[in-house]
Amino acid sequence: MKTHEELLDVVNDRGEVINTLPRSVIHGNPALMHRVVHVLVFNEQGKLLLQKRSMNKDVAPGKWDTSVGGHVDAGETILEAVHREMEEELGITTCGPEFLYTYIHSNPYETELVYTHSCIHAGEIKFHQGEIDEVRYWGFGEIKENIGKGIFSDNFEHEIETFLKFKER
Question: Considering the entire predicted model, what is its pTM?
Answer without folding.
Answer: 0.94
